[in-house]
Please model this.
Amino acid sequence: MLWLGTSFKMTKTRAEAAAYAARLKEAVGDGVEGVRPFVIPSATAIATVADTLGRDSPALVGAQNTHWADSGAWTGEISVPQAADAGARLIEIGHSERRAHFGESDATVRLKTAAVLRHGLVPLVCVGESEETRAAGMASATAAVLAQAAAALDGAANPRHVLIAYEPLWAIGEHGREPRPQDIAPVLAELAQLPVRGVLYGGSVNEGNAAGLLRLPGVDGLFVGRAAWDAEAYVRLLAMAAS
Ligand code: PGA
Model:
């Protein structure tokens, strides 16, 4: 089973997210052979997307972040039960943008992973080395990534329910570089040894490189940003993953 998902990051109104979900619902029907689609809207649109797809859709809806507490005085935060109530079945944790700008750390990633597992949702834990760490060589990149993954899984009751997304910082976003297979294959091979549900690759995935990335050993799926924000583009990626 290949995982193929996208995070909208901070884009799309509810109407735009609903239109996207309607197209996705039509494309996935009763399911896409061999592929598990998922879509992670902004918090404002989780319920909209979940309701448009239908709560038992083969396409999972996710949240981009969560707090580790179930409820309480945590202004601005959303708990796992609240995200689940809105229709989320998967929760993204520790994206590098959150680590860089919102104080996400290995410690909070571990707490959040445990909370998501406790509630039976799928944690999608993002790990990845910085440009500087990569410049110091493959061994330092691999060590940094494995340390992040180990921190997330530390004490996890059921690591086999966890998805890891390997997203090197130098590959993510507008200024990111498309990875060459030799840049990421050694790290993916190490991550593939972990007792987790699957390892996804993310960072400058597009329609031109997706098929090649999916063929890399240890890759159980792709986590796509910009190249999947248009529903038709995502549907084409789904068809590619299915073939
Ligand atoms: P990108 O984003 O595909 O736009 O590079 C990937 C990510 O941040 O998950």
Q: What stands out?
A: The mean pLDDT is 97. The chain has ten helices and eight strands. The pocket of 2-phosphoglycolic acid is lined by residues 7, 167, 172-173, 176, 202-205, 223-227 (CB under 6 Å).
